[in-house]
Amino acid sequence: MPLLVIVLLLVVIAALTFGSQYIPISHLWNGANNLNSEIIYTIRVPRIINAISVGALLSIAGLLVQNLVKNPLADPYILGVSGASASMQLAIIASGLIVPFWLFVLLGFLAAFVSLVFLIFISSKNLINTNKLLLSGVVLAFAYGALISLILTLSPLASTKPMLFWLMGDLSFSRNSFYPLILLLVGSLWAFRYRHELDILAKGEFFALKSGVDVKKMNFILLFTTSIFTAVAVSMAGTIGFVGLVVPHICRLLVGNMHAKLIPASALIGAIVLLIADTFARTIVAPIQLPVGIFTAFFGVPVFLLLLRRKA
């Protein structure tokens, strides 16, 4: 784990240095150039904070949802909650309304929360059935996908590119705030609190019941936590693929199946992966910025295929 922290710090330094304008490492702390200082503190630092927060939230959400539905191919978007957030935010972009970024994030989060309540309503009565939950989530995801396609079709041409950018992951709207990191810290501690129950639940619901775990309560906690993490991540940066799917598998390979190690490892590796991807997105064809989701897919596809081959 300390090695992952060191790697994250090195990636942060690289992210501060590289971009559309190269800033030498020596300028990071001596304030040699006012323009460089402005670029670092008003553009790159907020973007780094958001990349770390979103990457970690998606990775932990992926870890929890794979435990919830007992499916290694599950990712945070499989429950459809992210589609509600994306639909709301794309509708705002398409309408041409100019809203503060905090309100933009809040509206996306509220849409996701309403979708979560609806998902619980249609998939459970007194007990969450994970198979029914998974099927309901997939159906909702298709419905939101159709709604997103409709919004894209009807939107003005000038709005199409920003909307496509948002759909593929966009951290360019990051603001100078430490709230995402505070949310990540609180959420990680909340998930870590149930590490022992998660270890038992991962072995199956029947085994968990025999071991004295309140499966009904744990399923609701997992569903709620996963949905909130995903909603916040999508609200901040759009839909970024493969991070929540691949990172938990990498972590299991590196640290084993104990959630006391899996949760912090998922947070750190998710942050590292997304921060590296975002650095490439704003550097490789600078000054043009690319959607960060392109690079998470370039990373995720071969890694996932390699993991499948290794398990086979």
**Range of strand content:** under 5%
Continuous helix count: 14
| Total beta strand runs | 0
Cα-to-Cα separation, first versus last residue: 28 Å
**Please, what is the CATH homologous superfamily?**
ABC transporter involved in vitamin B12 uptake, BtuC
Radius of gyration: 20 Å
- Name the CATH class: Mainly Alpha
Helix share, percent:
over 70%
Biggest beta-sheet profile: none
Secondary-structure class:
mainly alpha
CATH architecture: Orthogonal Bundle
- In the CATH hierarchy, the third-tier topology is known as ABC transporter involved in vitamin B12 uptake, BtuC
Element-level helix/strand string: HHHHHHHHHHHHHH
Q: Overall mean pLDDT score?
A: 85
Task: Assign an overall shape.
Answer: globular
Low-confidence stretches: none
Number of domains: 1
Kindly list the characteristics that best describe this protein.
312 residues; ABC transporter involved in vitamin B12 uptake, BtuC
Question: In a few lines, what is going on in this structure?
Answer:
With 312 residues, this protein is mainly alpha-helical. It has helices spanning 2-17, 27-30, 34-69, 81-95, 101-123, 130-154, 157-167, 179-192, 195-201, 205-210, 215-237, 243-255, 259-281, 292-311.
